[in-house]
Amino acid sequence: MLNNSHSFMLRCGRLVLQAVMALLALGVIVPAITHAATNQIALLVPDGFALPDARVSSWLDAAQEEGLKITVINDSQFQQGTTPAQFSGVILPDQVHANASDALISSLETYANQGGQLMLVYDFGALTTTGFYAPQKSRLSNLAGVDYVLYDQLLGNMIGVGPVTGLGTTLRTLQVAPGKSMVWDATATNPVEGISGYVYGFLIYPSFVTQGTYSGSALLTSPNFGLVAGLRNFGNGRVLFVNMPLSYLKGQTDGMLMHGMLRYFGTNMMKMPRLSAQPKALGGLVLNWHFCAGDQIAPANKLKGWGIFQKGTFSMSITAGPDQINVGDGKGINLSQNTTAQQLVAYLLSQGHNIGSHGGWIHDFWGANASETNQSTFEQYLVLNKQSVEGVTGRPAIEYAAPEGNTPQWSVNWLEANGNSAYYFLGHTGMAPTRSYRNGALTNETIRAFPVMPFGQYATFEEFEEFNVPAASITAWYKQLIDFVAKNRTSRLIYMHPLGAVDYQSVLNSLFNKAATVKTSGQFNWFTMDTLAKFGQRRQQVSWQATDGGNSWTFQATHPSDLTDMAWVLPKSAYNQPVVTQGLGLVTWDGTNWIVTALGGTTLAFVSSKR
Q1: Of 141, 147, 82, which is closest to residue 117 (Cα–Cα)?
Q2: 163 in a domain, yes or no?
Q3: According to a count of CB atoms within 10 Å of the terminal CB, is the N or C end of the chain lower?
Q4: Pick from 225, 248, 273: which residue ends a domain?
Q5: Cβ pair 192, 184 in contact under 8 A
Q6: Total structural domains in the chain?
Q7: In this structure, are 123 and 269 located in the same domain?
Q8: pLDDT tens-digit profile of 369-380?
Q9: Residue 196 falls within a domain, yes or no?
Q10: What's the predicted TM-score (pTM) here?
Q11: How far apart are CA 440 and CA 457, in angstroms?
Q12: Comparing C-alpha atoms, which of 461, 372, 456, 451 is closest to residue 414?
């Protein structure tokens, strides 16, 4: 199920018990703990838990994409004396650790009392070591700050499924980008917004029903079921309680909240450095133009006349066949025989844009009919489209967008096997580029999904027009999104069609003028899917660590071929200005961070004293 996992409604009451069954696996291998301070988050798994496991890998991969260092430890290692001086933060994950002993819970409370920071997620420790719910409430309610897992009282109704809301400012801090939430209560002084999705509107999520007065700062709430996420002090430490199954959701193509909570825990709470997912740690947008049929060419030439295609470097996706809706209708672009379309493509190439495939040859036919069971029929359309585009451009077509977002898993496998680096995706909406988990697993190691960034329920000009979205609202959204990616040094993908865009010239002008202004200030850039995907693949080969020297941290990084444009972001609240001690590096800064950017070579070292 793409985007939000609505199928979970049928299974949410069984999630905890299903997680218990997974604990029967044996043979976990985790690194030995040293007693020196580390600049890493610890992820706690049970003794005897076998790795690799996708429910753990999802956390490790998310941390890697967020640029945070993370280490897996088991219960015995944690209980043998892990202190906040060694690991300042520990994640207690969902799904893999539903059983917990009283002794472990006591150790977690001791760790937090001593100044440690915990991210307590959903069903961690919901069951005793014998596999039963604890009497009355979760034994971790003391840490969470509210009562939850109320099986004795609520039985099968102890988990609710509904919308999740928060202040707009809080949602942005949790990396919920503008457009990925909609106004829930416009009457509030600080408008409350609900997390939303393209087409769906307000999304629904599972959370345990909570009771009691929460003494911390609520981050997310359920209008019907209580606290969904909050941060509270516990002794000298803090507990971030996340009452949602983050790993499960990521596995079902909704990874935004896991990534956002990881960024919040690691950067906002622990003040950790991170290796940016962006070249030079520079935020930006991917603009993906979809050329679906023959009626897109004339408006595209009109946009060309306005100079729109000179405003940045964009990703262009073309459905190249002669038909649009059904075989033989003659409404397609027919790229291989269409001189006007070929001249437009030549111009777009001259401006530096990437030309890729918009799916399978016949746009609407693919969108309505391609499925997980008909690869033998529909694979030919991927082949035909790729061959046609490459025949006209003379270049590999390595970016892809599925018609109507219809992306069967086999098509992603085919794309990866045939050299594609990136694809537009309707799963994980609102996220930065990611290696996509689907059906609980990571199947494709090298190709990257580029989730669509919606504006509430809509994303294209045709939809804005059909549903009477004011032009001023669209303009404001685009501007807010540019500010968001610039501030957070991240990226998102927006998309449009030439046929719809020509009716919104003033909005386009505002979008590109805003982008140009922020780019001039050195905070923004336009990217193509392929640029970010290849950078992400090269970034995966970076090996780096931070060593505690007492009064300062020493950072060392290596790459087998090229560190160019790799950039580390260090919060000013925890680090003084870094000094490069080895290799080629540049130190810059903004109001809240130091940025250390590699200028080349294969090694880089820098030091930063503690604040």
Answers
A1: 82
A2: no
A3: C
A4: 273
A5: yes
A6: 3
A7: yes
A8: 999 999 999 999
A9: no
A10: 0.93
A11: 26
A12: 372
Residue 129 three-state SS: coil
What is the 8-class DSSP label of residue 503? T
pLDDT in tens, 198-244: 999 999 999 999 999 999 999 999 999 999 999 999 999 999 999 99
Structure tokens at 415: 């794309």
Asked if 530 and 547 sit in the same domain, the reply is no
Domain end (from 469, 504, 535): 535
Judge if 435 and 341 occupy the same domain: yes
338 with 252, same domain: the answer is no
Alpha carbon distance 38, 42 (integer Å): 10
CA dist list (Å): 579 to 82, 397, 410, 576, 582: 31, 42, 48, 9, 9
d(CA 279, CA 567): 7
Domain co-membership, 551 together with 531 = no
How many CB atoms lie under 10 A from the CB of residue 421?
24
Could you give the C-alpha distances from 124 to 23, 148, 208, in angstroms and in order? 12, 12, 12
Cα angle value 16/265/143 (rounded, 5°)? 55
279 inside domain: no
Per-residue model confidence (pLDDT) at position 190: 82
31 pLDDT more than 90: no
**Residue 437, φ and ψ in degrees, nearest 5:** -85, 140
Say if CB 126 and CB 149 are below 8 A apart: yes
Q: Provide the CATH number for the domain around residue 118.
A: 3.40.50
Distance between CA atoms of 437 and 449, rounded to whole angstroms? 10
**What is the 8-class DSSP label of residue 528?**
-
Please check whether residues 20 and 135 belong to one and the same domain: yes
Structure confidence at residue 28 (pLDDT): 35
Q: Are residues 315 and 419 in the same domain?
A: yes
**Does residue 52 have a cis peptide bond before it, meaning omega lies within 30 degrees of 0?**
yes
Residue 366 in domain: yes
Q: Which of 187-191, 305-309, 365-369, 446-450 has the lowest mean pLDDT?
A: 187-191
| Size of the chain in residues | 611
* Residues of the domain holding 441: 284-535
* Residue 187 reports pLDDT greater than 90: no
- For 266, phi and psi rounded to 5 degrees? -75, -40
566 and 517 together in one domain:
no
Count Cα neighbours of 123 within 13 Å in the Cβ-side half-sphere: 29
Residue 574 above 50 pLDDT?
yes
Residue 182 structure tokens: 């909609």
Amino acid at the residue 138: S
CA distance 129 to 105: 12
